Amino acid sequence: MYIGNLCLVTAVEHEFKTVASLLNGNSISNKNEIGICRGYSGARRITVLKSGMGARGFAERLADHLRLNDYDALIVTGFAGGLNTSLKSGDTVIYDLCYCEINNPALSIACDITLTKLIFDILQKSKPKSIHGAGITVSRVLTGAREKIALGIQFNALAADMESYPVIAVCAERQLPVAVLRIISDSADADLPDFNTAIDSDGRINNWKMAATILRTPLSSMRFFRNLSPALSSFKECIKVVLNA
């Protein structure tokens, strides 16, 4: 499977800028409330989209974008919370199936088998600890270790994010091959500060609210950001490997 024209969907600014920094001749714009970066990796044309954390309203905007732009494949990428205690910060998870906890009962949707296997095989050569399995999209940052572990057991899922399911659903409607590549930012057995209070309604992280959250919970915040370092390095390494394959 050759991917000549690839689209990547990220959630937050740091993920977006990290991917953009790996592209040649990149140009950044904003259209229909979507941050867009276009550039190249070798001869391959790459487009990076920014959905915002939680991807509120992004599915409709993505559908409009896909009607006007042709891609060979799309990859949803960025950080995710671990739901299995065997996974640590920086580990790589490639979804084969994604649940949506927001719906009741929870729905599931499969990623493209061929694209998922391709990404997994590519990463196995440089990151042997990459693993594939189920993920789940939730409506909030999961902050409690007990909640994360229980959710992982309930759905037999490895990781939780806030964006993947609606993006996969849009791609499925258009028969566009889609895969999910996530980097674990926090392990299942780690309690987190309540970062939900720092997310604005448009999915952007509010720096002032984030600072207030950190001041309220300095120890757990310090532990989270210290453990985030391997995740940041792993994310950049994985994207670079995939783009250069």
Write the element-wise H/E pattern from the N-terminal end onward. Answer: EHEEEHEEEHEHEHEHH
Q: End-to-end span in angstroms?
A: 11 Å
Query: Main sheet, how many strands, which sense, barrel?
Result: 5 strands, mixed, barrel
**Structural class determined from secondary elements:** alpha/beta
Number of strands: 10
Q: Going by CATH, what is the homologous superfamily?
A: Nucleoside phosphorylase domain
pLDDT < 50 stretches: none
Corresponding CATH architecture? 3-Layer(aba) Sandwich
Residue-averaged pLDDT, rounded? 88
| CATH topology-level name | Rossmann fold
Total number of helices:
7
Oligomer: single chain
In helices, the fraction of residues equals 25-40%
Shape: globular
Strand order of the largest sheet: 5-9-8-6-10
**Would you state the CATH class?**
Alpha Beta
Summarize it.
37% of the residues lie in helices and 30% in strands. By secondary structure, it is of the alpha/beta class.
Keyword list:
single chain, 245 residues, alpha/beta, Rossmann fold, five-stranded mixed β-barrel
Helices and strands in order:
Layout lengths: L4 E6 L2 H8 L3 E8 L2 E8 L2 E7 L7 H11 L4 E10 L9 E9 L6 E4 L2 H14 L4 E7 L7 H11 L1 E5 L2 H10 L4 E9 L20 H10 L1 H27 L1
Parallel strand pairs: 1-4, 1-5, 5-10, 6-8, 8-9
Antiparallel strand pairs: 2-3, 3-4, 5-9, 6-7, 6-10
Helix pairs in contact: 2-5, 6-7
